């Protein structure tokens, strides 16, 4: 029994160490823009599927605003994803629609469809090392970036809430990921 427990502790320790190493590999800056205090890193999390690390995620908010308050009050926030795996554009879009259809009624989706389709039209196949970011600021709207390049801007606050909700709202892609990103620390 002691041998089994010791083996379990070693394996779990290696898994935790590997998660920390993967989060460090993502290289999330402490603030955004780097070196400023406009938005600060609140939490990081790793999405793993079938034992494969898919991406690391980071949530940034204003310095004195907690993650959940940033969502509730529609405050400035940034969700950044650093990918470890290759993913086809069509698979990303399919997964996004699956979650959006689970989270929203048909009338809401009909209202958001044009904005969502514009967003999806800017997607490309994902390669390991790619970094996507969704940023919302009440004064500037929603911005989608890929590897530091702005792909899309929208002033639709409802689109920002819905699309960031894929990761940050209930019934999203991953409840453990959501909880870690929104944790109060």
From TrEMBL:
<feature type="signal peptide">
    <location>
        <begin position="1"/>
        <end position="17"/>
    </location>
</feature>
<dbReference type="Pfam" id="PF16036">
    <property type="entry name" value="Chalcone_3"/>
</dbReference>
<protein>
    <submittedName>
        <fullName>Chalcone isomerase-like</fullName>
    </submittedName>
</protein>
<keyword id="KW-0413">Isomerase</keyword>
<dbReference type="InterPro" id="IPR016087">
    <property type="entry name" value="Chalcone_isomerase"/>
</dbReference>
<dbReference type="GO" id="GO:0016853">
    <property type="term" value="F:isomerase activity"/>
</dbReference>
<feature type="domain" description="Chalcone isomerase">
    <location>
        <begin position="23"/>
        <end position="182"/>
    </location>
</feature>
<keyword id="KW-0732">Signal</keyword>
